[in-house]
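Regression test attached.
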Amino acid sequence: MTKQDFRIVGKSVKRADVIEKVTGEGKYTGDYHLPGLLHGKIKRAEIAHARITRIDVSKALAYPGVKAVLTHHDVPKVLHYGSPHPRSASCTKDQYILEDKVRFWGEGVAAVAAVSEEIADEALDLIEVDYEPLPAVYDIDAAQAPGAPQIHEVGPGGNLVIPPVHIERGDVEKGFAEADLILEGEFEGGRPVPTYMEPNVCVADWDGSNKLTFWTSTQTSFMVRGALAEVLGLPLNKVRVLVDHMGGGFGAKQDLFQHEFLCALLARKCRRPVKMEFTRRETFIAGRSRHPFRMWLKQGFRKDGTLVARDMKVIYESGAYGSHSPGVTNVGTASATSLYRCENVRLDGRAVYTNTPIAGAYRGYGVVQTYFAIDIQMDEAAEKLGIDPAEMRLRNAVREGDIAPSGHPIVGRGLEACISHGIEAFGWQAKRGADRGVAGRPSVRRGWGIGCEMHGSSAYPGIKEQGNATVKMNEDGSVTLLTGAAGLGTGAHTALAQIVAEELGVTFESVHVVHGDTDVVPWDIGAFASHTTYLVGSAARMAAAELRERVLARGAEKLQEKVENLEMVDGIITARDKPGTSLTVHEAMGPSRGIPAEHLIASGSYMPTKSYSFAAHFVEVEVDTETGIIECRTVVPVHDVGKVIHPIAAQGQIEGGIQQGIGHTLTENYVIDRTNGRSLNAGLVDYKMPLSMDMPDIRTIILEAAPDPGGPWGAKGVGEDPIIAIGPAIANAVYDAIGVRFHHYPITPEDVLNGLRARKKELQDAGI
Amino acid sequence: MTKQDFRIVGKSVKRADVIEKVTGEGKYTGDYHLPGLLHGKIKRAEIAHARITRIDVSKALAYPGVKAVLTHHDVPKVLHYGSPHPRSASCTKDQYILEDKVRFWGEGVAAVAAVSEEIADEALDLIEVDYEPLPAVYDIDAAQAPGAPQIHEVGPGGNLVIPPVHIERGDVEKGFAEADLILEGEFEGGRPVPTYMEPNVCVADWDGSNKLTFWTSTQTSFMVRGALAEVLGLPLNKVRVLVDHMGGGFGAKQDLFQHEFLCALLARKCRRPVKMEFTRRETFIAGRSRHPFRMWLKQGFRKDGTLVARDMKVIYESGAYGSHSPGVTNVGTASATSLYRCENVRLDGRAVYTNTPIAGAYRGYGVVQTYFAIDIQMDEAAEKLGIDPAEMRLRNAVREGDIAPSGHPIVGRGLEACISHGIEAFGWQAKRGADRGVAGRPSVRRGWGIGCEMHGSSAYPGIKEQGNATVKMNEDGSVTLLTGAAGLGTGAHTALAQIVAEELGVTFESVHVVHGDTDVVPWDIGAFASHTTYLVGSAARMAAAELRERVLARGAEKLQEKVENLEMVDGIITARDKPGTSLTVHEAMGPSRGIPAEHLIASGSYMPTKSYSFAAHFVEVEVDTETGIIECRTVVPVHDVGKVIHPIAAQGQIEGGIQQGIGHTLTENYVIDRTNGRSLNAGLVDYKMPLSMDMPDIRTIILEAAPDPGGPWGAKGVGEDPIIAIGPAIANAVYDAIGVRFHHYPITPEDVLNGLRARKKELQDAGI
C-alpha cells in the first residue's frame, strides 16, 4: 500500500481477451462441439404444484434419433443444491435432480438426449405425464397463512426456508423513546432476472476411465465439481470442470442447476457427449431471479437527523426451492445494521417458499432490497426534519471504527468521501434549488436524488473464503498465472495479470492467465461477493512476490550482485546504484547453480477478513406527468474502491450495475400469474431491460479514499456495489420531481399516473 | 530404500487407463476433431539431392476445397531441430521447415491444407516442382570419399555432423602389448525403424488472442513448445502443447518434425484448426530410424580372459539431417568405455550425413550398435581362450566403483548378479553341453548364446536433467498428481501414481494423474533415457512426502496427537500406539485451524546423478540349414532394475524390447536404394516385424540387485535395456548352432545360407 510508482496497476491496459471477443473467436461453452455430440432438452411441467402419478417415456424413446430419456425413476436420489461450498451455510439442500413432485410451473420433470435439438424438442412432446394437482401458494401472504399447503418436508416448517434471522443490538425501545421523529413504512420489490448474454449451457463427456469432463458456464467451477461428484458418487479427481469465456453470470451462475446434473447423467447413459443449452425463455423459468421482498421499516431520528432506532422485518420470497435464500436472508438482514450508524437495531429476516420460480443469488444479494427501503426512509426523514438529504446522510454515514454488517470494524471514511465528492461534482446544492420544470416540455418535471450503499468483498456468511494463485516463470521469462477465479466477462483475469506483472516487475503482456480447469488450477471458491480482485488478487500478489525473489536470486548470481541491491522493472533486472549492470529476465532464466529455471513456480494462498466498499449515487430524472414515463438522465456515481487496478474495467462495472439498477427500479419485473403460477413474460420481448438509448449520462468518479489493508495495494471489490444505490436514488429523485413517494420497484408509468392522481386527490381533499 | 513393507509399490496394480484403452474410448491425438477442422498433407520430393528451381502452387490453390499451400517462400527462415532442450548438445540445428533444397528422397517440399484428406492429397499432385539435380551420396563410404558432394553448409565439413568424438583412457598400445590374444573385426548394422502403432499426428488451433494450442503425439511436449515458440516467434506462454494417450514413440517421437511446424503454420494462415497425420509409409520416409553403422573393433585379452585393451572406431549414418546424431554418437561411443572393464581404451565415434532418410533417437540410442560388436567379440575371445562365454563375462563385468560411461561410479554389482542368475535359471551349463541336433528335424541345429548390456537412466550427454511433480489433495481426500512426464503407453503414469500413493499413504485408486498440458503441469524434460520412473518418480515421491506431513498435521490437530506419533496407511491416519485413535484422510481434510484444505499442494523437483541398469540375456535359437531361417525359441532375460515398481509393466517393457531386438537382429531393415536414394520397403508389408507367432518363450527375471540411491526406493530405468543385449545373444547362439559368425544385423536367411556355404567351402579347403 506504500508503493509510489505503479507501472501497470491503475492503468487501463488492453485486455488480453479483447481481440478474440471482438472477432468472435473466443470460445464460450456453447462453442464446444465434440464428435458424436448429442443434444439434451428438459420437459417442463405446466402445473405449479402436483404429484406425478404416471410418466410414460416409451413413445419418446422410440422416436428416431432419441438416445436416452431420464425421469425421476432414473436419477440418484440425492438432495442437491445447497452446500455448493462444503462448509457453507449459504444454500439449502432441498432439491432432487428429478422427483415425483412438481413445485413450480416450468420445473423439469424429464430429460431427453437426441441427435439434434429439434428431435429432442419433438421427443419432449411424446412424454406423457399424469399429475395429481396439489393446493399451491403463489405469494408470501398465502404461504404464511395458517393452514397453508406446505411445499417442502425439509426445513423449519411454515414454508420458511430457514429459521428466522434475528439480529438485535442496543435497546430499540429506548432508542425510539429518545426519538424526535419516528417513521414507519412498508416496502416491496419485484422479481428482476439477471439477463446475462450467454444462456446457461453445459457439455458433459465421460472418458473410458469413468471420468467426467464437464464444460459449463459457471462462476463456481469447484462448487460444480463438488456437487457433481457428490451426486454421481465420484471422487473429486474424477470430475473435471472447465470454463473458458463466460457471457455474464451476475451471481445466478454460482448455483447448481438441474440441467447440469441431467446433462452429466444423460452423457453417462449414452456414453456420448451431451450438450444442454437454455433457451432465453428457460433462463427465466429455470434460472434464478432476485428475491421479491416485502419489508416493514420503522426508524427513529433526533431533530439533528441522528438515527437512534431501527426496527425492521424483511421477508424474501424464495420461490419453490431455497437456493441461496439462507445467504441472501443473512446478508440482507445484516446489512441493515449498517450504512447509517445506529446503536439500537432490531432486525428480523425471513425467506419463504412459494410455488413460483426459484430466486437465487443476484448482484446485490439481499442488500438491494433492504437499502432501497432504508435510503428512501432516510430521505423522508430529512424532509420532515428540514435537513438537506445529502447532509442528512453525511451526518449518519458509517465511518472508521463502526462495526460493519460482517462484525468487522469499518476501515476509513469511504462513505463520507463518496457523498462529499458527489455533492461537489453533481452540483447538488444548485440543482436542488433549481426549477423542476423543463423549458418547452410542460408535462415534464425534473428531480434530483441521492442513494448510498456499502457492500462487502468476501462478505459471505458461513464461508471461510480463500484465494489461491500459482505463478510460474517459463524458460524464456514469460509468465503463466494459474487461477481458479472465473472470468465472467468483467476483466478479472486482466486485473489479476496486472497485479502479477506489477508485483513481479515484468510487462503486462508477458503474463498469460490459465484458468477454469479444476484439474489443474488451485482451488477457488468461485466468483462472487465482489471478491476476485480483492481475494485472489492478494494471493496472486503473494505468489508473484515469492517468485520475484527467486528470479532476483538468479539475477544476483549472474550479475554478481547482492539480491537486496537488485530491482526488477518491466522484465529488466538492474543493480540500483549501477545503471549499466542489468540483464533481462530472459537472460536470468539461463543456466544457474541455484534454482533450476524449469521449476520457478510459486503459490500464494490468502484468507481475507471482510472489506467494505462504498458508493453514493446522485441522479437526475425527468418524469413525464402525461405518460408516467420516468427517464433517468444523469448519474454521478461516486465509488470508493480503495485502489483501482484497471480504471476502465472498474468504470464498466459501475456503468453495467447502474444499467441493471435502472432496470429493476423502472422496468424489469419477471411476472408470475398469482392465480396459477404461470410465467407471463419469460422473454426479452415482454421483460423490459434498459437499452443503450435508455442509458443516462454517467459521470463515474472512482475514489481511493479508504484502502483496505487486506486487498492488493488496498484494492476492494466493485462488482456488486453499483447496482445497490441507484434504486433509492431514482425513487428519491422521482419524489423530488413530482412529490409522489414510491415504496416499491419497479416504478411503472402506470404507478406514476396512479400516484399523481392520488396525490392530486389528496391535495384536493386537503383543500390545497 | 530402507522401507520394509510396501503396499502398492512392487505390486502389479490395475492400470487406470486400461479400460479406456481396451474399449477404444481413450483419446489419442488423432481423436481430436475440432469444428472447421482442415487436413494437412505434405508433398514429398522424388529426388534425393536437388535444388528447387521453380515451385508453382497456383493450380493447387485453385482446387476446390484447398485453403492454403505453403512452400519454402512462405515459412520462417529459422534453422530448427537441435536444441529441443535449450541447453542440450544432443541435437543439431541444420534443418529449415522448408527450403529451396532437397536432401533426401521423400523430403517435404510443400504443404497443403484442405477440407478433406482426399482433396489435400489430390492437390499435392497439382503442385509443380522443377528440380536441378545435385550429385548425391548414399552411404558412409561415398559420403567420406575425397571430393564427395557436401550435403550441408553447416557443421565441421567432410559430411560430418559433428567433430569426431574421441575418448582415450590408459595406454592402449601398452594394453595390446600385454595381451595374449588380440582380435580385430568389422561390424555393421541396418536401418530398423520404430514402428509405433500410432503414426505421427498433430492438430493445431490458434485462438483469437494469437495463442497456439497444439495437440501432438510427442514424448517431449515442452521441447515441442520451445521449438514452436522459437520458430513462430512467440513467447512460451503463447504455445500450449497437449498430449493425451500415445501409441508408442520409442525415442523417435522426441524429435521435432517438419509436419508439426507446417501444421501450426497452416492453421495460422487459415485461421482454422488443421490436422496432419502420417500415413504408415510416411512414418518410414519422414520418421526416424536407428542409425545404420559400421564399426571397427580391436581388443586384447590375457589368457585368463581379462580384457586389457580396446580400440574402436564407429561410424553412424545420420541420413540427410543431424537430428539426434550428436547424442547418439556421444552415448554410443562412451558406452564402449564400459560393460566389460578395460583400463586401456581408445574410441573414435563419428556421424556422417548421407542423402537418405533421417536417423534419430530410437530405444538403445547408439548403444545397440556398439554392444552388438563388443559382445560378439567377447564370445569370439572366450572361444579362442577356451573359457565358457558366461564365465568370460563374469570375469570382465563392470562392478561397484568402476567408472560408468557417464563418468559416474557404478553402484553395486548388478551385471554379475544378472549373469549368475541367468546361468542358473537358463541351465546354461547343461544346455551348452547338449547336442545341437533336433530329433526328427535333421536340417535344424540348436544353439545357445548370451549377451549383456548396461544402460543409463538420465544419462543424456550435455543435458541437465530434471524431474518435477506437483501433488495436490482435494477436499475429499482424493489426490491429483500433475506431471509433465509423457505416457507413451509404457505405464509410466501408473508407476508415478503408485509412488505417490505409497509415499503419501493412500490407496492407488485415489490418485489421479493429470499430464500432457504444458500450460498447467510443471516443466518436464520429456520421456527418454529410460528415466521417467527414476527421475520424475523421485520428484513425485518428494512432493508426496511433503504433502503427507501437511495432511498428518491436520490429522494431529483433529486427533489431538503429535504428528510424530501418526502414520497414514491406505488413507487412514492412525496413532501408532493407539489403534482406536484414527480418522480417514477425508475426515482430516475437514475444517482446520492450520493449513486450509484447499491449498494442500506440494511440489517436488529432482536433479539426478546418472544411474545404470544391467541385463544379461540368455537365448536359444534354432537354425534351419535348408531354409536359412533363424528362430529364436527361448529367452531368459535377467534385468537388474534396483527396485521394481510395477512388475507386469516392467515385464511388458522387457518383452517388448526383446521383440524389437529380435526384429532388428533377424528381419527388420528399412532399405534405401543405394543408387538413387529411393525407399524400397516403406510399409509393413515389405518391412518385416516379428509377429506374436514369431515370439520366443520369454521367462523374465527381474532382480533388485543394485538399488540406486537416486531412484525412488532404489528404482532404476528399464525402458531401453531389453533391446540391447538380445542382438548379440542371438548372433552368438547362431554361431553356437551352425558355427558361422555374423558381424552384422539383420542376419537374413540368405546370409545364413551364404554363410553355411562359405563355411563348408572353408572346411573343405582346410580338408576337414
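Expected vs. actual: identical. Residues 412-452+611-768 of chain B form a domain with the Aldehyde Oxidoreductase; domain 4 fold (CATH 3.30.365.10).
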